[in-house]
Write a structure and sequence with these properties.
Elements: E1 12-14, E2 20-22, H1 33-36, E3 44-46, E4 52-56, H2 65-77, E5 84-88, E6 93-95, E7 102-104, H3 116-143, E8 150-153, E9 156-159, E10 164-166, H4 167-174, H5 204-209, E11 224-230, E12 237-242, H6 244-247, E13 252-258, E14 274-279, H7 282-291, E15 293-297, H8 306-318, E16 325-330, H9 333-338, E17 342-350, E18 362-367, E19 372-375, H10 381-392, E20 399-402, H11 417-429, E21 433-436, H12 439-444, E22 452-460, E23 466-476, E24 507-515, H13 527-546, H14 551-559, E25 564-566, E26 574-576, H15 577-591, E27 602-611, E28 614-625, E29 628-639, H16 646-666, E30 671-672, E31 675-676, E32 695-699, H17 717-729
Parallel strand pairs: 4-5, 11-21, 19-20, 23-24, 29-32
Antiparallel strand pairs: 1-2, 2-3, 3-4, 6-7, 8-9, 9-10, 11-14, 12-15, 13-14, 16-24, 17-22, 18-19, 18-21, 22-23, 25-26, 27-28, 28-29, 30-31
Length: about 750
């Protein structure tokens, strides 16, 4: 929704203390007065002698929306940020005249695709602006003066003659005034006092002092604790189960079988067959799980291996008879190849990746006869609501979902398989429970980033000019056993047919072949660009080297004059070549590319990419000695349009860069004999603090509409790093992770 109207969104009611509650919902079906004025069931609450409370509607997974979204409201409400207290809103549905008969009370509340800021930028500012307007109307009435004679500042209405009055004193009357159904005028960017200002996260003190609560901290009196032993073979099952030893563990109350996903329905609830042990506490549940005697039946994918998948991809790419799906075809690449003075080809390998959120999956669930309460760290509360309804029949309006801060998401918590497990157990035992996953549970039961091979080819004429580009990929496609993706293109999340340099080369083709593999696949941070940017930006460097051209100048020449080109994937509908060039040139300038003299054995590499409406470039200076790479400088430049919280954007770029380095250097999930080989951080080694460089972040302040920032900083890290390694050592890295490739 782009605007708010009285009929659609605004509710006003005076509290018993004369304060004013602005409750964003549907007034015809509003909750009772007592519900509207308590706790976090509001967007804005104004009470005498109290901070102004602003509700945060999104799922806070570390990307900062609990701060940035309330900042939008506070800006237009014209209150000082120190006057504001932020409260997390729950997921809320209300009856509505829609096809489903319900609507989201607070608007979009999921977190994925870096959409929270673009979705809320106009809408939430309208919330603040309309509330400011009715407060001014109440003051105009009290003073018997035209509203045009009034202004506001820091939660007060000001008269031109010097009189002023606090919002709280106007609340009772403002509650009775009508609110315009039409959008009201918003501030000009030049008048912003909160938007664009570096702002500490709203609950920073709670986080650093350990008071912040996450989903895994949910505690409800009388709730039991469940842990699950899951089948290690995808689509496998329970062959035999003896739970007597588990039930003999003190504190263990129940042993519950969890069925495997129905092959005919796909992955719509849990991921694997399993056995849940339910106990009084976590330790008893774990000891009970360890005592289970379970024999697992292998599933149809038990012979899968990641090594075999790579060979399958290579065979498909090598076989001229292979049938690839056409994603894009400009000009005639075959003709360009036939007439080329030179053809450059390279293969790039991408491994499976786990999400490894710092907080493993968890869920508290309390199922009652006609209602439910869910407390969990999640990215898709709407999906959880639909799942609970499908599994229990409970009306979605009676499903209460609380969303504490999550210890990371990265796309993992877009799926709600852990909620399905909790619901299944709760139905079986008839009691509220906390489902707890261990790190091993999390790493071996994930929705993994796809794996596959990119094959790129480029044609050069006798003058070294690029005349053609071909990008073919063979990978485990994202649609696997997911009914909602049945109509999606086969290359979703694996091939980006409109990414640069598409549109910049006359002869361009992009093709994809989906490969069968039993591992579940999902969205992984910056899903599509993080899978394709390494190959694309590495290959641009390879072409420049083959043509004897400077890689920066080569990119800028390809980008050409600033213009918008069609872009069909997430973040479109266009991609702006001028913005790509802008972040690239700034990154080169900041790192001193072509200016500073580098020590022997050092090199600079760069990469640039369009990510979900934003533009980011990385430039790195590295050295390679004795088979080991060291990052000496790391520059990240981003253009995300209008910036709401620069401190938040900077933090996101730093975090994404470190995550990207960690992933590029060390991380992969491998499968052997149908089972995940990694189980914890010793064999999925994250980057250590001693090896992490300082990340120099530069934010371009442009006048474009805002994009998000949560995923923009990761796709260009790996290619910038490997391009720098080539510049330093002459060794080209074409597969991730880098691992010990530099030692050979």
């Amino acid at each position: 929704m782009s605007t708010l109207s009285r009929r659609a969104f605004m509710q006003l009611s005076a509290t018993a203390l004369g304060g004013l509650v602005f409750n964003v919902g549907f007034p015809a079906r509003a909750k009772a007065f007592a519900d509207r004025v308590q706790g976090p069931w509001v967007f804005v609450r104004i009470d005498p002698d109290q901070p102004i409370v602003i509700g945060a509607r999104g799922a806070e997974i570390g990307q900062g929306v609990k701060t940035s979204l309330p900042m939008l409201i506070a800006e237009e409400l014209d209150v000082g940020w120190p006057q504001v207290k932020v409260e997390q809103l729950p997921y809320a549905l209300i009856p509505a005249e829609t096809e489903a008969g319900i609507a989201a009370k607070y608007g979009p509340q999921g977190a994925g695709g870096s959409t929270s800021i673009p979705d809320g930028f106009e809408e939430l500012r309208q919330v603040g602006a309309k509330l400011r307007r009715v407060l001014m109307q109440a003051a105009a009435e009290r003073w018997q003066t035209p509203i045009e004679a009034l202004s506001t500042r820091d939660g007060r209405v000001l008269h031109a003659d010097g009189r002023e009055i606090a919002y709280a004193q106007l609340a009772a009357r403002a509650a009775e005034l009508p609110i315009s159904e039409d959008p009201v005028a918003l501030k000009s960017a030049k008048d912003f006092r909160i938007i664009g200002k570096a702002t500490r996260v709203a609950d920073a003190e709670d986080i650093v002092t350990g008071r912040a609560t996450f989903g895994i901290d949910a505690r409800v009196d009388g709730a039991l604790v469940a842990m699950i032993a899951r089948c290690p073979y995808f689509e496998g099952d329970i062959e035999s189960l003896d739970g007597r030893a588990a039930l003999a563990v003190p504190g263990v109350r129940h042993v519950v079988r969890i069925p495997r996903p129905d092959p005919d329905k796909g992955l719509v609830t849990n991921l694997a067959a399993g056995v849940a042990v339910v106990a009084d506490d976590t330790w008893s549940a774990k000891k009970g799980r360890d005592a289970l005697k379970v024999t697992w039946k292998r599933g149809p994918w038990s012979g899968d291996s990641s090594a075999a998948l790579e060979q399958k991809a290579l065979r498909a790419l090598d076989d001229p008879g292979s049938s690839f799906d056409d994603a894009r075809s400009d000009g005639d690449f075959a003709a360009a190849r036939a007439s080329a003075a030179r053809v450059i080809e390279a293969d790039y390998f991408m491994p499976f990746l786990a999400h490894c959120t710092m907080e493993p999956q968890n869920a508290f669930i309390d199922l009652r006869e006609d209602s439910a309460l869910l407390i969990a760290s999640m990215q898709s509360p709407g999906g959880a609501s639909r799942m609970i309804n499908a599994m229990t029949g409970i009306n979605r309006l009676n499903i209460d979902i609380r969303m504490p801060r999550a210890g990371g998401g990265f796309g993992r918590r877009l799926e709600n398989d852990f909620v399905a497990e909790a619901v299944h157990i709760a139905k079986a035992i008839g009691k509220p429970l906390r489902l707890i996953w261990t790190r091993e549970d999390d790493m071996q039961n994930d929705w993994y980033r796809p794996s596959g091979v990119h094959r790129l080819a480029a044609t050069l004429d006798e003058n070294g000019a690029l005349t053609g580009w071909s990008h073919r990929a063979a990978a485990s496609d994202r649609r696997f056993r997911l009914p909602d993706f049945a109509d999606a293109s086969s290359w979703i999340a694996c091939l980006d047919p409109d990414a640069f340099p598409a549109g910049c080369i006359a002869n361009y083709q992009a093709e994809f072949m989906p490969l069968e593999f039993g591992l579940a696949r999902g969205w992984w941070r910056g899903p599509l660009p993080s899978f394709t940017a390494f190959a694309i930006q590495s290959f641009v460097d390879e072409i420049a080297a083959a043509a004897g051209q400077d890689p920066l100048a080569f990119r800028l020449k390809l980008l050409g004059e600033a213009r918008e080109m069609p872009y069909s994937d997430h973040g479109g509908p266009t991609i702006h070549t001028g913005r790509l060039a802008g972040v690239l040139k700034r990154a080169a300038n900041e790192i001193g590319y072509g200016i500073n003299t580098l020590p022997e054995g050092h090199g600079i590499g760069m990469a640039v990419h369009f990510v979900f409406g934003g533009y980011t470039a990385h430039a790195m200076q590295v050295s390679v000695r004795e088979g080991r790479v060291r990052v000496h400088r790391c520059v990240c430049v981003t253009d995300v349009g209008q910036v709401v919280n620069p401190l938040g954007v900077e933090a996101q770029m730093m975090g994404a860069t470190i995550d990207g380095l960690s992933t590029a250097l060390n991380l992969q999930i491998t499968v052997h004999d149908g089972k995940i080989e990694q189980g914890n951080f010793p064999d999925y080694p994250l980057l250590r603090m001693a090896d992490a460089p300082d990340v120099e972040v530069h934010i371009l302040h442009t006048e474009f509409a805002p994009s998000g920032a949560g995923e923009m900083g990761i796709p260009t890290v790996a290619p910038a790093l490997t391009n720098a390694i080539f510049a330093a050592s002459g060794k080209r890295i074409r597969r991730l992770p880098i691992g010990n490739q530099l030692q050979s």
